[in-house]
Each structure stands twice: as C-alpha cells, then as structure tokens.
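Morning run. Coffee first, then this:
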Amino acid sequence: MRLNLSKLIKRAKKYVELEGDTKVLDVQFEEKFTLLGREDIVLSVITSESDNPEWWVVGGSSPMNLYSKKKFPSADEAFSFHSGLMLRLADRDFKESAVEPDKVGYDAFISHASEDKGDFVRPLAQALDEIGFDIWYDEFELKVGDSLRQSIDQGLVNSSYGIVILSKAFFEKNWPQYELNGLTAREIEGKKVILPIWYNIDKEDVLKYSPTLADKVALSNQKMTIDEIAEALADVLSE
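And here it is:
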C-alpha cells in the first residue's frame, strides 16, 4: 500500500499533541526509508514545548512513534532505533538475558523435502536434538501464521551448517532448492557449510542433479542407520 504523506503529517500532528500534551507548530517531511520491503517516513516536528521542542516522528508501514532530537540527532538514527524496536515487538519469541551465552544461533539447518519427513528426517532431527545440538528443523521452529520465507532465511543465516537431505523428492521441489542456494552462497565464501546426506539415492542420481554436490563426501541411509548418521554429523557439528 502506498503511503499518503499528507495523511501521515496530519496523523503525526494529532499523535504528538496527544502523546506529548503540547502544541505542534510545524511538521515537515525529512526522509523515507525502505527496509525489508516496508516503507516508513521520518517527519521533523517542532512543538511549543520550551525544554524539548524538536522531535522526530517515525511511522507508516509500522506503528507511529516519537523520538527526541536531543537523543537522536539525525533521522537515520531515529529510524534505526525505531526499526529495532518494531522488530523486537513483532517477535513473540524475543528474549533478553544478562547471562553470557556459550553460542549464538543454531548448530545446523536441515534442508529436506516434506515427503522424506516421516521415515528419515524427523527421526534424524530428534536424534541430533537428543545428543544436544540446536537444530533448525521446520517442525521444531515454525508456528501457525509464521512467514515461511522469513523463518527459513533466519535459519539459513543463523546456522553454522546446513544438513541437506538429497533425495528424488528433494530434486523435484522448489523450496529445498531455494534453501540449498542459500547454503551454497555461504559456502562460496570458503567455509564448509553443506553436509550432504543421500536418502534412497546413489551417486549417479546426484550427478544428474549437481556434479558439484556429487563431489562432496556424503553420508547415506543405504549404508548407515539414522543413529550412525547422527553420530557422524555430531563429529562435524562439534568442531
């Protein structure tokens, strides 16, 4: 939805007078920001308040909020603080802690086709979880109403490794290939990220899909049990 600047200015005037219990003398457009596909406007507001007359109002796609120019001298600083605040409010799982963490993020992201869940992927994810690893697996992480793309992107970015369950179903699906592309982009930087597992396929099947993936040392359910695969993965995830 396109933002209507004149309506935003009117809303800002009413908002500041209500929130600040003051008289608004002037409202001017300062800057427009686009972040994660959402547009927000920063307005410069002058009030009749004697001690602190100058303010920023930030809002548009996100709820409107008021920031003192004494604390945030530039529009960019006000918008940056506003964006962080809105992200915190939007994330129902947001937590704060003064305890220093041993690690941040996930040990691994599991990329797979949904057809392979029941017999292989779910038991593997549970086995890794029982060993003590933090695994991004959709059934562990996704809740009703979550954005699938945003949740997957978060998992891809914040995971040390990507466990990729290659199968005939995987080769036919768009989402697993999207995830694989994200992991490949990270691996281009020179760090080993992709940990491939062949599920009911052999090297010839992988060669037809990706010669590059076929060249990687992989684990296979045709040669190992789920527990054995989990233990082999644990050796890498613990490094």
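The chain has a mean pLDDT of 86. Good start to the day.
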